[in-house]
Structure formats: C-alpha cells, structure tokens
C-alpha cells in the first residue's frame, strides 16, 4: 500500500535520515528544539541527536547565518531554520555577500554547503511581516540554489538533495504546504535541482504555480473542467535554476499561460517565468499569458481585506477562462475554499 | 629564534606593501588596495604564536595577515595583479584573500562580515573535538556592526576557542572612533558580552607574541572561553590606496609622530645583530623581486574562467 505523509513529516524524515547517515549534518535555528519542533519538522530530533547537533540559537539571524557559513567552510553541513522567511532579511549580507559568492571569489577553494529553510507564513491574519514570499530576492543572485517544493515527495527528495549539495540552498516552504499529504517513499532518494514537475496534464492552458499557489492551481484546474477547459498544471519546484524547457514545451502546446506566484508579481518570479518562456518560444509563436500574485500592497491582517490580497483557486480559474475565452467571459466558478486555510487554527 | 622570525615576517610584509604602493600608480594593480603599513606587527606577532593548522579570518585589509600566516607571496601578488596564478585565480583581488593551504579561511570587503565565520569554524572544530584555535582579525569599525555583538555573544555562550583581535587604528575611512562610538572602549564592549578582553595600548610585537602564546594554549586546551585583544595601532597610509594622506586634513601628521617613532620594525631591527639582519633583508628582497616578476609575467585568466566555481 502506498505510504503517505504530510509535507512536514516528509521534511522530518529527510532530516533524521540524513543526520543518521552523515555526522556532518546539524540543524540550527531559534527554538529548534522546543516542544513544537519547528512545525513538527524537527520534533524529537534533540532526543536522538542531542543538543550538539540540534542547536537552539540566540536571536541573531545575521550572526548565526555567519556561524553556519563558518561551520560549512570547516566541512560541516548545517541546516538553518527561519520560522518565518521575513527574518532572513536580517541575514541578507551573509547570504548574498558570502554564501553565494565564497566559492567563486575565493577561487574555488571553499564550499558553503548550507541549507537555509525559510517559511512563508500565510495562513490567516499573518499580516505584513509574516506572509512575504521573498524568493525572488534570492533568485536574483548567482551562486544560490532556490527551491520551493510543494508535494511531500519533492519536499523530502529536495531536502536530501539540498543537504548533500556543496552549494548554498534557499529552501522555501509555505506554512500551508506543510499540511499537504502525499506519497513519500521510505527510502533514500533525491530530487534534482532544475527540474519542474507536471502535476496534471492538459491541452488548453498551462497553469504554473509557485509553492502553495500550485495547490490552488490544482483546484482551479478541477473547476475549469466545468467549462470544458483542460489545464496543465506545472510546479517549477526549483526556482533557480528554473526548468524553462518543461515550461516552454507546455506553453508551446497550450498557447496560454497563467503564472501564479506566492508573492507579488512586480519584479518577481512570475516575470522571470514569462520572460524565460518568451525567450524560448520567440515572438513568432506568440502565446497569451496572465500573471497573478499578491495584490500590489502590504498584506493586511483583517480577514475581508486579506481575502482580496491573495488570489485563490476561483480567481485563477476565472483568469484562465478569460485568457481563453476573452474578457467578455462572465464565468465565475463557485468559491473553492482551501481546506488547509479554512481549517487552520492559530496562533502559528 | 623568535626575534629573527618576527623580524623576517615583519620586514617582508612592510617591504612588500611598500613595493605594492610604489607600483600602484603604474596601474599594474587594477583594483583597490588597503595597506597595513604601520600596523603589521599585530598580525605578525599573533600568527607567530599559532600552529600551522590554526585558522585565521581577516578583513579587506589582510595582506599582512595572509603573509604572516605563511601565505604564498607569489600567489598573493599575482592575485593583486589579477593573474591566473593568483591564489584565487585573480577573482579575489586584495580584498577577498583566502588560502586553505595556510588555513587563512576568508576576508571580506563588507566590514565585520567574517567575524561569525570564525565563530562557526570554531563551532565545527569543537563539534569534532579538534584542538585547533581560530583567530578573527577586524578593525574597530567592525565593532559597530551588529554582527560583532551577535558573534561574541554566541562564542561566549558556547565557550568556543576563538581569539578576537581588534586592530584599533582609530579610523573608519576618515571618521575617528570617538565620532562613531559613544563608548570607544572595545574591551568593555567585549566584556559586556561575556568575552574576556585585554588591551594593548602600544604595538610591542614581542609582548603581544608571548601573551598570544599563553592565551592560545589555554584556548587549545579548552580551559577557557573566547578572548578579545584590543590592539591599538595607527594606519600610516590612506584608507584605500598607496599614499599618505595627512595633507587632506582629517588627521594631523603630529598624531602619527609617536607611532612613526615607535615603529615596530625599527624596534625589532635595533635588537638584532646587524649581520644577521642584513642577511634576512637580502633574502627577503630577492624573494620580493622574484614575486613581483612572477606576478608581472603570469598569464591572465582565460575567458572560460568567468563561469567556473560559481557552483560545485
């Protein structure tokens, strides 16, 4: 029988398995050994591996990222956690100026095999500073791998891949992705960087979602069937490098592209995805596209405004339908509430 | 013999940097340089007290540290010249020197950035039970960066074998320390974070060597947590570039006079037998001439190097 795990259980399994396999691996982060166990992803690890390998840290994101980099340079394989991605802004100097550049600027003499896990906070009421998807900041910088897996299978395989990589990896995980359940093999496997995953086939329109947005794209696909539209859903999984070949091949067939980011559209991943596909398809093979993402404003806390801030599955389906049928299309699917958001109870 | 070793190292560094300053106007080095002239004795004394596999991290002003740690003179000059034979194939230049073969593990153009790396390296050594010591060199400007406090706090919390060496030359670019720090006492700052601190008001290479030896032995044995040395010194040349800059007016030449009079190199020279000293100087001069020739004659990196070493 197929074994299923949640995404956070998959990350837990990957971490524990790799720590058993490789004594160089350790985890550091604020509160990493507390009773919550970083959304369950590190629960019980301190009992198995001790406080020398599961390191609770002071509130010092800049310094502790540097500490992780120093340990990585010394041959260790640290995994650093940020309970919200927003805290990574305090570590930008270390990530951008050292982690990304060390191998190159030191002439290939050192590796920084560091994994930085950043959680995007959307659930309910997370507000301005606990909801941001800052992956585009990191995608901009050569020398960093940036991944945002969505399925539990990819979560485990990519975390193993990231820990074993000799390059720094920014591992982005959406709080609402933590609850996704899916098939996860018990054994050891890796998912490569730079390979997109076609989650569902379709001939009419290509839906590309980043992180949790891909879950909403799958829901949108289901409702588009009502109006006879078959959508292909692709999860890029790896944002840098990006598997443009798979994306472009899909759009070449469908001629229509909807990119939905778990962040803002302006200067974001969606702009890069559209541009990368356009570069490959050329202007002669014109395709029509729409970009979707957070409303171009600060994330409000209050529920009515928050509903407007995030595009949901109905918004995606509506946009896809308009893209195919034109602006006159007045089809609007019934609101499809995301159960992981509907059922979520705080405070985290 | 200690005196000879200190003198050889110090003489080499002083003369190399004087030569770098001399050739700089001819544009053979097309990159910023930050000279250590006047403050080299700190690196020399501390590194003489270290074992070969002890680890050092530095700042953008690290020629002295690199050479004091036993770095390759030819490789360093070729690096400054941007040549393929440089320690980092010409990609680092003067500001990002690193050489794993002598355990100099990094330097950074962004002030204070390498301080936590030293702490992290020491954490890794502690995890693996390796009795090695890490030394973090930085200027007093780095003390103002938040990462200084974060790093010292963690090193003290974990009792890591790190020696922090603050080379306090009194200026961040052109701004004096008292215009930047309400409490211009680096030792007091370190102590407030749980790190034991000692101040060296004068640049005395022999005294600094002996005290470093004692502290390093204690750190190596795991007998104590981290230590900070605040070493006062003076930058004889401009912040970046080869020249003296007293005429600009932000600091008077009179301020430099006591430091020039107390030059560490001259102090050590006076203690050495003149024949011995001449022999050292002649050897070093030949070594320097050879290294500049090597840098000059080395090839440029090929275009294919633009993309190598971005990823593993």
| Helix-and-strand structural type of chain A | alpha/beta
**Main β sheet profile of chain A:** 7 strands, mixed
Report the strand count of chain A: 14
Helix content of chain A: 25-40%
Taking strands numbered 1, 2, ... along the chain, how are they ordered across the largest sheet of chain A?
3-2-4-5-7-6-12
Shape of chain A: globular
Mean pLDDT of chain B: 97
- Oligomer designation: heterodimer
Distance separating the two termini of chain B: 43 Å
Output the structural class of chain B.
alpha/beta
Strand content of chain A: 15-25%
What sequence of helices (H) and strands (E) makes up the elements of chain A?
EHEHEHEHHEHEHEEEEHEEHEHEHHH
Order of SSEs of chain B: HHEHHEHEHEEEHEHEHHH
Rounded mean pLDDT of chain A is 95
Low-pLDDT windows of residues of chain A = none
Strand count, sense and closure of the main sheet of chain B? 6 strands, parallel
Radius of gyration of chain A: 20 Å
Largest interface: A-B, 41 and 43 residues
- Output the strand order for the largest sheet of chain B: 2-1-3-4-8-7
Identify low-pLDDT runs of chain B.
none
Instruction: Indicate the overall shape of chain B.
Output: globular
């Amino acid at each position: 029988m197929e074994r299923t795990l949640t995404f956070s259980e998959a990350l837990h399994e990957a971490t524990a398995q790799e720590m058993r396999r490789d004594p160089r691996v350790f985890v550091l982060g604020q509160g990493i050994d507390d009773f919550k166990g970083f959304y369950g992803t590190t629960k019980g690890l301190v009992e198995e591996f001790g406080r020398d390998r599961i390191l609770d840290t002071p509130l010092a994101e800049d310094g502790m990222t540097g500490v992780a980099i120093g340990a990585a340079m010394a041959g260790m394989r640290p995994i650093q956690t940020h309970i919200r991605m927003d805290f990574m802004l305090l570590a930008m100097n270390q990530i951008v100026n050292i982690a990304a550049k060390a191998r190159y600027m030191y002439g290939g003499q050192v590796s920084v095999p560091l994994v930085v896990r950043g959680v995007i906070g959307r659930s309910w009421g997370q507000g301005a500073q606990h909801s941001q998807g800052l992956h585009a900041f990191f995608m901009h910088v050569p020398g960093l791998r940036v991944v945002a897996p969505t399925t539990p299978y990819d979560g485990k395989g990519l975390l193993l891949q990231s820990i074993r990589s000799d390059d720094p990896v920014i591992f982005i995980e959406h709080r609402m992705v933590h609850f996704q359940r899916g098939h996860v093999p018990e054994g050891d496997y890796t998912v490569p960087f730079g390979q997109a995953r076609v989650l569902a086939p379709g001939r009419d329109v290509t839906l590309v979602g980043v992180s949790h947005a891909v879950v909403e794209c799958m829901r949108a696909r289901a409702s588009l069937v009502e109006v006879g539209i078959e959508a292909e859903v692709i999860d890029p999984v790896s944002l840098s490098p990006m598997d443009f070949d798979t994306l472009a091949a899909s759009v070449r067939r469908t001629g229509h592209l909807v990119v939905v980011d778990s962040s803002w559209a302006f200067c974001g991943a969606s702009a890069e995805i559209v541009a990368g596909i356009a570069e490959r398809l050329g202007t002669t093979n014109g395709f029509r596209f729409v970009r979707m993402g957070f409303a171009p404003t600060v994330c409000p806390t209050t529920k009515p405004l928050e509903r407007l801030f995030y595009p949901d599955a109905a918004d995606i389906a509506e946009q896809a339908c308009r893209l195919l049928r034109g602006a006159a299309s007045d089809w609007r699917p019934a609101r499809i509430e995301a159960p992981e958001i509907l059922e979520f109870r705080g405070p985290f | 013999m200690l005196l000879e070793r200190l003198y050889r190292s110090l003489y080499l560094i002083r003369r190399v940097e004087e030569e770098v300053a001399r050739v700089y106007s001819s544009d053979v080095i097309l990159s910023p340089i930050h000279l250590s002239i006047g403050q080299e004795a700190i690196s020399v004394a501390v590194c003489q007290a270290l074992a070969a596999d002890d680890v050092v991290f530095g700042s953008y002003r690290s020629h002295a540290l690199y050479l004091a740690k036993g770095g390759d003179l030819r490789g360093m000059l070729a690096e400054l010249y941007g040549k393929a034979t440089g320690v980092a194939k010409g990609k680092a230049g003067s500001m990002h020197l690193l050489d794993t073969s002598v355990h100099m593990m990094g330097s950074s153009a962004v002030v204070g950035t390498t301080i936590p790396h030293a702490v992290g390296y020491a954490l890794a050594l502690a995890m693996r039970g390796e009795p090695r010591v890490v030394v973090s060199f930085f200027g007093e400007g780095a003390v103002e960066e938040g990462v200084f406090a974060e790093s010292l706090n963690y090193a003290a919390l974990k009792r890591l074998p790190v020696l922090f060496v603050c080379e306090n030359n009194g200026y961040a670019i052109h701004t004096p320390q008292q215009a930047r720090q309400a409490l211009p006492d680096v030792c007091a700052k370190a102590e407030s974070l749980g790190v034991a601190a000692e101040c060296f008001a004068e640049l005395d290479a022999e005294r600094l060597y002996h005290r470093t030896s004692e502290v390093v032995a204690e750190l190596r044995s795991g007998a104590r947590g981290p230590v900070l040395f605040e070493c006062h010194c003076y930058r004889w040349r401009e912040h970046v570039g080869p020249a003296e800059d007293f005429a600009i007016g932000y600091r008077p030449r009179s301020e430099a006079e006591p430091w020039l009079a107390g030059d560490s190199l001259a102090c050590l020279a006076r203690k050495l037998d003149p024949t011995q000293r001449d022999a050292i100087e002649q050897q070093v001069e030949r070594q320097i001439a050879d290294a500049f020739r090597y840098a000059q004659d080395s090839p440029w990196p090929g275009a294919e190097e633009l993309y190598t070493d971005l990823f593993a």
